[in-house]
Amino acid sequence: MNEEISITPSEVIEYMYCPRFIYFMLYLKIPQREEQRYKVQRGKEVHDRKTRINKKYLRKKIGVKEKLINQKLSSNKYNIHGVIDEILFLKDGTAASLDYKFAKDKGRLYNTYKYQAVMYSMLISDNYDIKANKAFIVYIRSKNKLKEITITKNDFKKVKKVLEEIIQIIKKGYYPKSTSYQKRCRDCCYRNICIK
Q: How far apart are CA 78 and CA 119, in angstroms?
């Protein structure tokens, strides 16, 4: 892929929310001022607290042999980087990411969570040369409910396609279509400069 560009899971999530986020953030380099958004700040506080108090915790019921906390990884192969809350090395010889979400479990898995988990699996498999075909999410606002996500080869293909699209926006300044969900535009920090 492209050696100059490295994309984070957060940027993929922004892209999925609206592809134009990438255009404004990474091509025009206009910051979105996320430090002013309550949920983002609250989520970061909870995440920081979890990484401090959770260091000796081992998830026996899901077969964890060893875990690493707060790991920063990058992959030139996929042009991605990110910090994974926990990397779990499992008894079956595979590995999985574990991500804390400051959210409630609403009974469905959002694509943004899935794509983030897939990117973490790509980072783990590329850095540790190990199969990472599952991931875990902890929903903090549902009493730390743990959910397993299965990751397939098709999921890897979908994420690779999104990464290629993001690279095209960043490199060529391609102005993508905005989200089809008009409700998202109301709260968007770029709404005043976004041409409909």
A: 9
